[in-house]
Design a protein that fits this description.
There is one protein chain. This protein is α+β, with helices and mostly antiparallel strands. It has one domain. Helices cover 25% and strands 23% of the residues. The protein has 1 helix and 2 strands. It has a two-stranded parallel ribbon with strand order 1-2. The model has no long low-confidence stretch (mean pLDDT 80).
Length: 44
C-alpha cells in the first residue's frame, strides 16, 4: 500500500483488533480505522 491509503477493519472482537494492530505495525504509513459496535469492549 502507498502513503495516504486507508485500511478499514470492521469488527474488533475476534481477529479484527489484532489484525488492525499488526497492519499498523507492518505499514505505519497507512491510516487504519476500526469500526466496532460493542458497547463494552472485553480485553483479552
Amino acid at each position: 500500500m502507498q502513503k495516504g491509503d486507508r485500511l478499514i477493519v470492521v469488527g474488533c472482537s475476534g481477529a479484527g483488533g489484532p489484525a488492525a494492530m499488526r497492519a499498523k505495525k507492518l505499514m505505519p504509513e497507512v491510516d487504519v480505522t476500526v469500526i466496532r459496535k460493542e458497547k463494552e469492549f472485553i480485553v483479552r
